[in-house]
Amino acid sequence: MRIAVFSTKSYTRDYFDRANARLGHELAYFEPRLQVETAALAAGFPAVCTFVNDQVDAPVLECLRRGGTRVIALRCAGFNNVDLKAADRLGVVVVRVPAYSPYSVAEHTVALMLALNRRVHRAYNRVREGNFALDGLVGFELRSRTIGVIGTGRIGAALVEIMTGFGSRILAYDVEPSAAVRGSGAEYVPLDDLLAAADIISLHCPLLPPTHHLINSAAVARMKPGVMLINTSRGGLVDTRAVIGGLKTGRIGALGLDVYEEEEALFFDDHSGKVLQDDVFARLLTFPNVIITGHQAFLTEEALTAIAETTLSNITQVERGESCENSVAARKS
Ligand code: NAD
Predict the structure, then answer these.
(1) 47 with 1: CB under 8 angstroms?
(2) In terms of domains, do 107 and 222 share one?
């Protein structure tokens, strides 16, 4: 099938070309993000491949449909940026990659935890400047601490498995608790109890209307003083202003983000020569106890290979008229 691949980076092309050697699709790579201004690039392409910050809303879908597109292949798990009802109405099939090495994201989550806890970012800068003082670098042992995992699907479960290895106590919260996660040593508790008891809170639920700003000022107020908060899921789970308030009072002792609610304007591109226009993001960067990575938790060889292979296989299945287990249906409400 002819596939227009939006938001292309060098690593996208490398892994998609490799996976496509076996599947034989015709790939056209476009660097721009998919949005209403760029949707016309896909005219004549029956398949469009998008990433997390492409705008797959109703106007874009209508433009794509007019150009002959009949399948949107998301090369990611989350589909909060897609108007599924509009896709359904227009007869456009949406497929995604529901699982691609959840360990990639879980391990990046642990990287943020360890770096924040042992102040690796500060130590790195000090040593490069010949400053070997240890003041302000005191951490704690994860072994004796309580980790709160919100959302225990694939990634949350992988994190539980890893943190069990550290010897930490694991509290979990999910609207659909998992017997396997419980079996691996986590204790399911109500959300408020988790917020009050955890030394580290890590978010792994999807961004949906009920989870938007799950971490707001009321949630921050319930947290243990000095708590570490990690979000490698979706930016909209966290009310950034509420979290900045928590950092200023010390209620939040450390913050690790791989995602940010206004990341579309920033992430995945080099803005280093420009003046930062996002004052909220700029404030986050001033805290010594905040580490932000630019949505890179998925960026491993294993995940990129799995993403490319699953995305192209999904399109092959749709092309052949087969049912695709990775299709995403609109909710009937
Ligand atoms: P998953 O679907 O396997 O698990 C999500 C879990 O969240 C499920 O167990 C679900 O029951 C639970 N959940 C749903 N609503 C909830 C609520 N209101 N409160 C608590 N739990 C709730 O998804 P996954 O593969 O584990 O991925 C989790 C999220 O990670 C994705 O939605 C995506 O946004 C994000 N993600 C980020 C990256 C990255 O690079 N940073 C990469 C992949 C995925």
Answers:
(1) yes
(2) yes
Mean pLDDT of 7-23: 96
- Report the nearest-CA residue for atom 39 of ligand 1: 297
Is the residue at 144 inside a domain? yes
Domain carrying residue 243: 102-292
CATH number for 304: 3.40.50.720
Considering only CA atoms, which of 90, 56, 91 is closest in space to residue 73?
56
Q: Residue 333 burial (CB < 10 Å; 0-12/13-18/19+)?
A: exposed
Using the predicted structure, report yes or no on whether residue 322 has a pLDDT greater than 60: yes
- Ligand 1, atom 37, lies closest to the CA of 233
For 97-149, what is each residue's pLDDT tens digit?
A: 998 889 999 999 999 999 999 999 999 999 999 999 999 999 999 998 999 99
Residue 332 falls inside a structural domain: no
Is 330 domain-assigned? no
Q: pLDDT value at position 84?
A: 97
Q: Would 326 be classed as within a structural domain?
A: no
Q: 134 CA distance to ligand 1 centroid (A)? A: 37
Around ligand 1, the residues with Cβ closer than 6 Å are: 77-78, 99, 102, 105, 150-156, 173-176, 204-208, 210-211, 232-234, 258-259, 295, 297-298
Exactly one of 75, 234, 261, 309 is catalytic; name it: 234
Q: Is the same domain home to 78 and 124?
A: no
Residue 182: pLDDT over 70: yes
Residue range 93-97: mean pLDDT, rounded: 97
152 CA from centroid of ligand 1 (Å): 7
Residues 152 and 171 in one domain: yes
How many of the other CB atoms lie within 10 Å of CB of 104? 22
CA-nearest of 44, 80, 39 to 61 is: 39
Q: Are residues 284 and 198 in the same domain?
A: yes
User: If we measure between CA atoms, which residue out of 82, 65, 73, 91 comes closest to residue 27?
Assistant: 73
Look at residue 274 and tell me whether its pLDDT is greater than 70: yes
Residue 143 and residue 243 in one domain: yes
Assess whether 295 carries a catalytic annotation. yes
The β-bridge partners of 316 are none
* Residue of 96, 108, 154, 263 marked active site: 263
| Distance between Cα 22 and ligand 1 center (Å) | 31
3 CA to middle of ligand 1, Å?
Answer: 27
Question: Quick check: 273 pLDDT over 80?
Answer: yes
